[in-house]
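Archive entry. Fields below.
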Amino acid sequence: MGIIATSRLKSPWIMHFDNSSCNGCDIEVLACLTPLYDVERFGIVNMGNPKHTDVLVVTGPVNRRTARVLKNLYEQIPGPKMVIAVGTCGISGGVFHNCYNVLGGVDQVVPVDVYVPGCAARPEAIIDGVVLALQKLAKLQGVAL
Amino acid sequence: MNAWIIAIVTVIVAPFIGGLLAGIDRRITARLQGRFGPPILQPFYDFFKLLGKTRIAASRLQFIWIYGYLVFMVTALLFLVLKLDLLLLVFVIGFAGVSFALGGFSSKSPYSHIGANRELMQMLAYEPVLLLFALGVFAQNGSFLISEIFNNPTPLLARLWPIFIALLVVLTIKLRKSPFDLATSHHGHQELIKGIMTEYSGPYYALIQLTEWYEYVLLLGLVFIFWANPWWAGLIVAAIAYILELFIDNITARMTVGWAVKFVWSVGLVLCVLNLIYFWLLPIKGVS
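PREDICTED_STRUCTURE:
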């Protein structure tokens, strides 16, 4: 079991889901994959397929229409899985918090493990969020990161 | 008894070689893109992580096909290392490809279906080239047996170089590299998600990766036999072919599946047929 637990920490595949974000955070998430930040150094790959995902990165406030999609995507991910809410809107709804169609932050629909604040969240902060998620997973499994 | 030992060693060692090749692939690709890249052992981390994921089944049938894919691929590799019949090896590779495509068709996902359709089109493109490759080997050695290739002092490359070029194109298709990265999409997530592999998750996706590692070794083995007699020359040819594939992957755009069939048939098949005509017009002494 040890090798599987260690491998989990070394190969977090992410999927990025945009609720109803202004695209600011989405661009920053994609910036993590560029040569400047190069998250593939840590084995992080953007898969774009819930069935191959370990870490779900969600940006933007949840509205009534995307809540269903987000829940569906979350249920398609095989466990163990982590969810990271990126950006102020993903955390609480941000500037959209009292719109008629907005439910609020991501945690209104799916359980969130790590919150990454910022408007827009910087790529360094997003990478830090993934590292925090891995530390949480390591603590759960009792393995050193 | 000796054959049994070779077979067991191959089944155990081949995934390690294949995984390392995949790791080198990711590292070199990253460097070509100006990135640092993951550790060389990254494919193994991915593999073990996938083994530890929850099993989710989209359809029970697809798992039967995926085991078929693995078993046929290992069988094809054993044909190669035990130096058996090249023609049968080509047929077994065909069975493996069909199993994989049927696995894609056995779930309801449209992405999986598009991927499986493209996989079949790609097979339509490369299977004739593989068949003509086997015929070319027969034309040179008078036998389909791979052991004859190892006994012949003249390398296959000397007279079969047009077929070798066609086989490099097939290698690009089978390694799922860029101009032909159509059925599973290493790069085109927006268009196809993960194509034929979309519906496989967790341990079953790990099984596909394992099969791909066997496939890497098998395909580079087919390149290797073009210069099998001093074995190190074959290794150099295989290494150069692999590095060349990585460069091709990074400098070309993804094309359509129609283009792929047209390209392989117009360039690959013509090269193969010209090569065979050459043998027919100029028979070698000593081979009847």
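CURATOR_NOTE: Chain B has a mean pLDDT of 87.
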